[in-house]
Structures are given as structure tokens and as C-alpha cells.
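[agent] plan:
  1. take the single chain provided in the ticket
  2. run structure prediction with default settings
  3. attach C-alpha cells to the ticket
  4. add a short note for the reviewer (M.T.)
[agent] executing step 1
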Amino acid sequence: MTTTTLTLAIMSPPYEAERTTTAFRLMDAALQRGHSLKVFAYEGAVSLSMAEQKPHPNPVKGTSVEEEAHPTTKEWVSELFRCYPDQLEWVNCGLCVDERGATSIDGPHRGGPKDFAAMVLSTDNTLIIPAK
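[agent] step 2 finished; step 3 output follows
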């Protein structure tokens, strides 16, 4: 099997749309197949790795935090880095980080549109998952 390097740009914030879950599924599928992946998080997607995220109970169902076992997107990002440390590069747009105060992150590094352009030029294919 030939491996490739892919770039994925994501813009959707955590929990707002199914696009975020779909993006994580695509990332995991590509990485499981041995491909290298470069992720550029733009706009609300810079919050996917915010350290301040906390799981919550579900008062409607009457479940506790432990019973609900609600994953956070920061955990999903951390797991991708843990499972595929040599295959994954993740850049959060610095302008977007500043606008949202999403400065407390683990894993991704800060960059900008110039980094996204370099990613696109250095990879085999690019997928952009827009906010709408």
C-alpha cells in the first residue's frame, strides 16, 4: 500500500455540528492506514484542543459525569497524538486562537495561514471541512 501525506483544514468548533465528528473519523481512518496527516484548525476549530474543556453530567437522563462518560474533543486530539505521534502535525491558527482566548492547548502548535499554504504545497491532497 502506498502511503500519502494529507492536509485537512477544519473550521467547526467543538460540539456544534456533525462535521467535527466526521473530521475526527476521517483523521483516524487516514492515520490507521499509515498515512501522514497535517491538520490546520481555523476559526472555531482552534477550540477543539482547549485544555479547559470538562465532561459534564446529563441532568435530563439523571446521569453523573462518570455515568455519562462524555468525551471531550481535547481528549480526541490527545489520543490522535498519543496513537500517531510520528504521523500527525496539527497547527492552530494563531489569529483565531487570540480571538477566542484558546491559548491553553496540548499537542497542536500555533501557526497561521502561511503554514496552511505550506501544508497544502507539501502534501498529496487536501480536504477542507468548512463551518457551513
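[agent] step 4 note for reviewer: The two ends are 34 Å apart (CA to CA).
[agent] ticket updated
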